[in-house]
Amino acid sequence: MDLVDDFNEYRSRMNDKIMQSDNLILKRIFNLDTNTYAPGTVDVATKEMIGLACSMVLRCDDCVKYHLGKCKELGITDSQIQEVFSIATLIGGTIVIPHLRRAFEYWEALPATTPS
Q1: Along the 116 residues of the chain, how does pLDDT read in single tens digits?
Q2: What per-residue confidence (pLDDT) applies to 1?
Q3: Which end of the chain is less enclosed by CB atoms within 10 A, N or C?
Q4: Which residues form the Carboxymuconolactone decarboxylase-like domain (predicted)?
């Protein structure tokens, strides 16, 4: 498996286990997350780019990978992603650079279209 497949398989498998635990609070948190990124006044692509920038600043590599995958699915361009990377690095400071490196690597590893 490669970088993208490994991440997607692990995330899917663990999300299934979490949902099988039948914990109401966790289910509500997952539902809130899903609904936050649904179409609304702010378009989905913009929401994903905001999520990506926030995830980079918060230094959550799993979240960065997830949002990068969604951005790729939505047709976000390389130049748009580079701009988001720039904003996140400016806001987060140089401590974001290791996460920027991994985000850059993951973006390049994503196929033209990734599964949800």
Answers
A1: 599 999 999 999 999 999 999 999 999 999 999 999 999 999 999 999 999 999 999 999 999 999 999 999 999 999 999 999 999 999 999 999 999 999 999 999 998 764 44
A2: 53
A3: C
A4: 26-105
Cβ-proximal residues to 69 (8 Å cutoff; 6+ apart), any chain: 4, 8, 110, 114
Cα distances (Å, whole numbers) of residue 73 to 11, 45, 76: 17, 9, 8
Domain ranges of the chain: 3-109
CATH architecture of the region 3-109: Up-down Bundle (1.20)
Burial class (CB in 10 A: 0-12, 13-18, 19+), 100: middle
CB atoms near residue 29 (< 10 Å): 12
